[in-house]
Specification:
It is built from 3 helices and 9 strands, in the order βαβββββββααβ. It is an alpha+beta fold and about 180 residues long. A hairpin with a 7-residue loop joins strand 5 and strand 6.
Length: about 180
């Protein structure tokens, strides 16, 4: 099932998501629907809050960008109850976009290397390190389960310059190639 993507202004995007366990109802179906929704919207990551579900779950498939960012090759994973453990001090600026913030792309400063612990779709515990653009993509999706958006990292001036675009998104005044849902 392809869900509408929740866009800027919807309160679910600002909630810290809740942990889930293996008893979460129809989790396999939800994960499959998240893959379908993400692919339909031409995304490389999707977090459950972006489809209106305030739970600690996100999916990533970086293969579409593997030519430009080789570290994304083969990165197709389900992250459940993730926690970022370590952020190294080196930070880099790179452009980011988001399915929940269509039409906006901005440079965001993030740590270049992370350590993350999570459970996979079988609820097996995993701990891994990522760097480069893979670390950025994971941090971006992780932010969604923490109630954050990439625009939160922008300067006050940049946020003011984007205010009218953000208001249009919140009102649903955007023309994009996938179904979306506003707060209203």
């Amino acid at each position: 099932m392809i869900y509408p993507v929740v866009v800027y202004g919807h309160p679910v995007l600002r909630k810290v998501a809740k942990d889930i366990d293996s008893d979460y109802e129809k989790l396999d179906e939800l994960i499959e629907s998240m893959w379908e929704t993400m692919y339909k919207a031409d995304g490389i990551g999707l977090a459950a809050p972006q489809i209106g579900k305030p739970i600690r779950l996100f999916v990533i498939d970086g293969d579409a960008l593997k030519e430009e960012f080789p570290e994304l090759s083969g990165l197709k994973k389900v992250f459940i109850n993730a926690q970022i453990k370590l952020l190294e001090s080196k930070e880099e600026f790179l452009s980011e976009g988001c399915l929940s913030l269509p039409t906006i792309r901005e440079d965001v400063k993030r740590p270049s290397k992370i350590r993350i612990s999570y459970q996979d779709e079988n609820f097996d515990a995993v701990e891994e390190e990522y760097d480069g653009f893979a670390a950025r993509v994971i941090q971006h999706e992780y932010d969604h389960i923490e109630g954050k958006l990439f625009v939160d990292y922008l300067s006050p001036l940049k946020k003011r310059l984007l205010k009218s675009k953000l208001n249009k998104i919140a009102k649903g005044e955007v023309n994009i190639g996938y179904r979306f849902q506003t707060a209203k």
